[in-house]
Amino acid sequence: MRINCHMYKYLSIIFLSLVFYTSIYAEVSVKDDQGNIVTLPQPANRIISLAPHITESLFAAGAGDKIIGAVNYSDYPEAAKKIPRVGGYPSADLEKIISLKPDLVIAWPSGNNLKQVEKLTAFGIKIFMSEPRYPQDIAKTIQRFGVLAGTTKVADKATNEFLQHYQLLKTNYSKKQKVKVFYQIWNKPIMTINGNHLISEIIELCGGENAFADLKTLTPRISLESVLASNSEVIISGGMGKAHPEWVDEWRPWTDLPAVKNEQLYFIDPALMQRVGPRILFGADKLCGFLEKARN
Length: 296
Fold this sequence. Notes:
Elements: H1 5-24, E1 28-31, E2 37-40, E3 47-49, H2 52-60, E4 67-70, H3 94-99, E5 104-107, H4 114-122, E6 127-129, H5 135-149, H6 152-173, E7 179-184, H7 198-205, E8 208-210, H8 224-229, E9 234-237, H9 246-249, H10 258-261, E10 265-267, H11 270-273, H12 280-295
Parallel strand pairs: 3-4, 3-5, 5-6, 7-8, 7-9, 9-10
Antiparallel strand pairs: 1-2
Helix pairs in contact: 5-6, 6-12
């Protein structure tokens, strides 16, 4: 049977269209941080982020233009400020989320209302649970977001850059003389982090020792007396924003503390250190620099 030129061109177009359709709309599947397999019939084009650090990681993965909803305080990068809000991360607006008809919702188990997340699942919405515990987990998160959004080329590049930055810090600082660090995440009550917290991992990365690593709670409340007894050589204060560096000054009367006596009191923007997103290594740059000053 002979196929004329016009028919050949027509069949070629059909074949190429099928190849294009298959490559663009192929099923994607990844495991989330709770061990659930999340499978989408095609890469997500309508994503809702339920935490500011998730929003940052999505942008790093090249999926920023696919975010159709984000929670309050999703303010980085600049483009994130224009994304419609779906409430706050402790309490999201379920009606708004459902009305947006997302392909995928990315949730934060430690910060979101899990009952609300369960309700979204009951509506048939695909949920990816994101809970990075170690710096390397952030790299894995970016990579998986790239798979889910079909932006693997950008995500792989961002992942490699993150891991290179991490390795550089590890090589330069992790084996240096230990410096005891009290990291303050709140002032009234005084709150810190234990050894299982990601910030504690960053302290170790910089060659530091978390003064309260042995406590059982992830973000424990502690007494003033326990801080004074810790003999911390460096105090680093965070908070909810740049408006709280005055926490540093509250320690100055306690001159028996080595950190106070040697003027090793510092502030790091919590957006860099207390969000488990790709910018945490820029916070680590600052922390490593402060510990190096303390060593000198």
